[in-house]
Write a structure and sequence with these properties.
By secondary structure, the protein is α/β, with parallel strands linked by helices. The chain contains 17 helices and 22 strands.
Length: 528
């Protein structure tokens, strides 16, 4: 079938007049390259659900794709004898998020599944929490998290309140493929099975995470930014309940704005995203900066170090929160967890506390399930990409409760001093990252497998651990460090992670910087 015929067929089945007109205009102007990008591939449903650029066609996020995905979720629930307890559907403030959430609810309801639909945009952790608080059979969150403004996404939780894992993703994908044309999928936007939830769901979240910190000092001057996202109201509510002084909010980034005007890549890890917050903190003499990503499931912070503000890496914040949680919790049933690309320092801290530390594949869907298999209690889990779990009531990363725990610690002592103590006790660790946007991430990692380095910056590779075929991850181990390479699961890029261990922090940082430089040179030598 020609490209033109495929496009015309899609237009005929597209229930959305906006994307129908968009595709017709592309056809009329012979925009073959654009149409090929939209139709030569299909947006794939995986354990991260769906995520992609908005627009018409099967390789974009749109009403037709969302309705078929929702039909797939309904079929998956029915196959497993679930659905009678309903599905929670939440959404953020991105372009089309409210539309996609309403369409999700209408398709599920038409399939006979009760739906609790958010009445307003809210943070992703509220959806994850609501699945369990309402005893629902599943949850859907319409969000693209920290992706750029043109993107949106569709994330699915199972009845445990955790993101789905295999084989659920493959089962849903197969059900989507069998769903048929979007305009033939049953749809009932006025179904009595759809009920609205809002303040009640947020209040339940606030009530359940109230006990995440105990009494203590609250004298902390904080600058906060939700980075144009949906975190502000819930963050402020948490803050007031805990008794902290009102945060100083970055005015330019305070309100939800799907265009992210000050942060084209609204990820607090990206350069310059925190510039406005850091400048405001200096003017106001703030003790710390706290930032959430747009859907508030990630946390970034800056602390005073020698008087100046310094943004902590995801691993550094993981060390601080991990040490705190190990110190303030007790019980023989405790367990902590980290993703494989996160720092090994958590392993050493946990061993010293007599607590098991589990290492998982990348993705919080794995971290949140640690302890399920042996009845242990997850008291802390993290991934270096700013994802932290500090309370078992939310089985996903939660940048809001993590911010509260961080603030509780920062009000008690210098975070720089905490990091110094950890380095003195467990050895100085330093980590770094490098990412490369590539058209074909699989081809990139294949070249590395075919031509692996034997040494980097004078350090001999002691062992190569290729985690494929289970996980597309290559790990190069050195005597005092490691390098890990993997394709991103949500973006067209390859990510490389570096860790070095030395006697002093300065030596560790020098060593990790040398590894990073040497690896980039090595990649250049094998890239056509």
């Amino acid at each position: 079938m020609t490209l033109s015929h495929r496009v015309q067929g899609w237009i005929a089945a597209d229930p959305d007049p906006v994307t129908r007109a968009e595709l017709q205009a592309l056809l009329d102007t012979d925009a073959e390259e654009d149409l090929s990008a939209r139709f030569d591939e299909t947006l794939q449903f995986g354990t991260a659900g769906l995520r992609g650029a908005l627009g018409g066609g099967p390789n974009r996020m749109n009403v037709a794709v969302v309705r078929r995905a929702s039909a797939g979720v309904a079929a998956w629930l029915t196959r497993h004898g679930r659905g009678s307890n309903g599905v929670v559907v939440g959404y953020d403030h991105r372009h089309r998020s409210a539309d996609f959430a309403r369409d999700t609810a209408a398709v599920l309801a038409a399939a006979g599944i009760p739906v609790r639909l958010a009445s307003r945009p809210w943070p992703t952790p509220v959806t994850a929490h609501s699945v369990r608080s309402y005893g629902a059979d599943a949850g859907v969150m319409v969000t693209a998290s920290h992706n750029p403004a043109p993107d949106n996404g569709y994330k699915v939780y199972d009845h445990t309140g955790s993101q789905i894992v295999p084989p659920s993703d493959a089962e849903i994908a197969a059900a989507i493929a069998a769903a048929g044309p979007a305009n033939e999928i049953p749809y009932d936007a006025d179904s009595p099975l759809i009920t609205s939830i809002g303040t009640d769901a947020i209040r339940a979240y606030l009530d359940d995470v109230d006990g995440v910190i105990g009494p203590g000092p609250r004298d902390l001057r904080v600058v906060y930014t939700p980075v144009h996202g949906v975190g502000l109201d819930v963050f402020v509510a948490l803050w007031k309940r805990a008794g902290f002084p009102d945060p100083i909010v970055v005015p330019e980034q305070a309100q939800p704005d799907p265009d992210f005007p000050t942060a084209p890549f609204p990820n607090p890890e990206e350069p310059h995203v925190l510039d406005l917050a850091l400048a405001l903190a200096e003017r106001e003499g703030a003790d710390v900066v706290i930032a959430n990503d747009p859907d508030a499931d990630r946390l970034a912070v800056a602390v005073r170090d020698g008087g100046a503000l310094r943004v902590l890496s995801g691993d550094e914040l993981g060390w601080v929160l991990g040490a705190h949680q190990l110190a303030v919790t007790d019980g023989d049933d405790r367990v902590v967890a980290r993703s494989i690309v996160s720092s090994t320092l958590l392993d050493d801290m946990a061993a010293a506390a007599g607590v098991p530390c589990r290492v998982t594949p990348t993705g919080f869907k794995w971290i949140s399930r640690v302890g399920d298999e042996d009845g242990r209690r997850l008291v802390f889990g993290y991934e270096e990409a700013l994802g932290y779990a500090v309370s078992p009531v939310v089985r996903d990363k939660d940048g809001l409760t993590a911010a509260l725990v961080f603030a509780d610690l920062a009000a008690r002592e210098s975070i720089a001093d905490v990091l110094s103590r950890l380095a003195a006790r467990f050895g100085a660790h330093a980590t770094a990252q490098w990412s490369e946007r590539v058209a074909d991430a699989a081809a990139f990692t294949a070249r590395i497998r075919a031509h692996p380095p034997t040494e980097l910056s004078g350090m001999q590779v002691a062992r190569v651990h290729d985690h494929a075929p289970g996980v597309d991850l290559i790990e190069f181990l050195f005597e005092t460090g490691r390098v890990l390479v993997r394709p991103s699961g949500t973006e067209p890029k390859v990510k490389v992670y570096f860790e070095a261990i030395a006697t002093t922090v300065e030596d560790a940082r020098v060593q990790v910087a040398a590894l990073r430089t040497a690896f980039r040179e090595y990649v250049g030598s094998i890239t056509p």
